[in-house]
Write a structure and sequence with these properties.
about 150 residues; 5 helices; globular
Length: about 150
Amino acid sequence: MSGNNDGDKHNTRSSTGEDVDTSATTNRATRVELGVNLLACIEDEELSLSDAVDRIETVTTDPSLTREILDTAVMHDVIDREDGRLRTQDGATAVRFDKQIIKRDGDYKCRRCGSDLSTGHFLQVPAGELGPFGPSCVRIVLGRES
């Protein structure tokens, strides 16, 4: 992930509509849940550990938290891990772009690549909201583009 090097300082919107800072001050369990929810949305049937970490870095850049997200996703049967590859489980939650991707105009930086955005794309998941992303980065994060 390119982008700024500000650690885990990112804002997202919770399912109740309030802004949530997903930095180290945010509840660790909430960030784990956001990461597991994100992995459950990935539409690739299989991806490398590196590609999975690239996506998880939209939630956290903390290696121990990344490991916890991956371990929790395995425990909850969201993914299988084997030989440095991840397989999504059958029944992965396909994201409906018309319902789960919200566009907002404003001044944003993409959480995946760090590009300046005038329109942010925000992914709605059960644990809250992830974003902003640019239009192609949101598709990459979800596995719809490479």
